UniProtKB/TrEMBL annotation:
Signal peptide: none
Organism of derivation: Solimonas fluminis
Main subcellular localisation: membrane
Domain Histidine kinase: from-to ranges: 41-258
Protein name per its UniProtKB record: histidine kinase
Record's keyword annotation contains Zinc-finger: no
Cellular component annotations (GO), alphabetically ordered: cytoplasm; plasma membrane
Protein localization: Membrane
Keywords, in A-Z order: ATP-binding, Kinase, Membrane, Nucleotide-binding, Phosphoprotein, Transferase, Transmembrane, Transmembrane helix, Two-component regulatory system
Length: 266
């Protein structure tokens, strides 16, 4: 009898071990599939702008002399736009890698929010030149303990998305407001908004909403980087849709634990 129980136990343990191995093998196979799909997607996303840059340059080389100024300018603009797009793409990939590796150590610097917004607006000026961009700050915004570069990157990603997804000529508003226990920063646009079911998922790595005029999106890392950076600094980020018109609002909330007291700031 004991033998039978011992045998059964041994068989069960062996089965569990095998099941674990099979499970691991399946997980490995799935991971391998994901890795390969990811590489394909990244290669494709880099290839499209590269093809466009190469096309513009070779056209300028072969026929440049026959083109007028406006035509040459158009080709140069295409090459510049696509180069900037690739630059953003690679930047987001690198940021995501840093986050994944757990290698991100946000600095604790005393920052003025208006200065970070100003700097983010400078970096996105060309992309947003056909939008109406405005800023609004509530009185008595506190100085904050943040990592200037990370916070600037978060705002740049949100502004770039507003520029990509909201039609030219529409308004993009950045506002910062002081509340009792937090400061909130909002980026509002007048674009298509986000389907309610996707409001949470848009912050997941590689999540994208496909179709329509969203074709020229990146690979779905911009918002994942935003969430990773904001979390690392001790804040919170979320998205909602506008009620009164179409468009989305991205809100970053920074708790009062990040406020620098006037005495410290002095
Ligand atoms: P992507 O590189 O695709 O822009 P993001 O992580 O920045 O990746 O955004 C994820 C998805 O969320 C996008 O594919 C887009 O569909 C949607 N999205 C992000 N920002 C906006 C916005 N301001 N308006 C509408 N949709 C947006």
């Amino acid at each position: 009898m004991l033998d039978t129980i011992a045998d059964l136990a041994a068989i069960t343990i062996e089965r569990i071990r095998l099941a674990k191995q099979i499970d691991q093998a399946r997980m490995l196979a799935e991971t391998e599939q994901l890795r390969s799909a990811l590489l394909t997607s990244i290669s494709h996303d880099l290839r499209t702008p590269l093809a466009s840059i190469m096309g513009s340059i070779s056209s300028l080389r072969s026929y440049g002399a026959m083109y007028d100024d406006a035509q040459r300018e158009e080709l140069l603009t295409t090459a510049q736009d696509e180069t900037e797009r690739m630059h953003r793409f690679v930047g987001n990939l690198l940021d995501m890698t840093r986050l994944d590796a757990g290698a991100l150590q946000p600095k604790r610097e005393t920052c003025e929010l208006q200065e970070i917004v100003g700097s983010a607006l400078q970096r996105t000026a060309r992309l947003l030149e056909r939008h109406q961009v405005s800023t609004a700050y509530s009185h008595e915004l506190p100085m904050l303990t943040l990592d200037f570069v990370l916070m600037e990157q978060v705002l740049v990603n949100l502004l770039e998305n507003a520029g990509k997804y909201a039609p030219e000529g529409t308004r993009i508003e950045i506002s910062a407001q002081r509340h009792r226990y937090a400061v909130s920063i909002e980026v509002r646009d007048e674009g298509p908004g986000i389907p309610e079911a996707d409001l949470q998922r848009i912050f997941d790595p590689f999540f994208r909403i496909r179709g329509g005029d969203r074709q020229r999106a990146g690979i779905g890392l911009g918002l994942a980087v935003c969430r990773g950076f904001v979390d690392a600094m001790g804040g919170r980020i979320r998205a909602r849709n506008r009620r009164e018109r179409s468009g989305s609002i991205f809100e970053i909330e920074l708790p009062s634990s990040l406020f620098v007291s006037p005495a410290e700031a002095a």
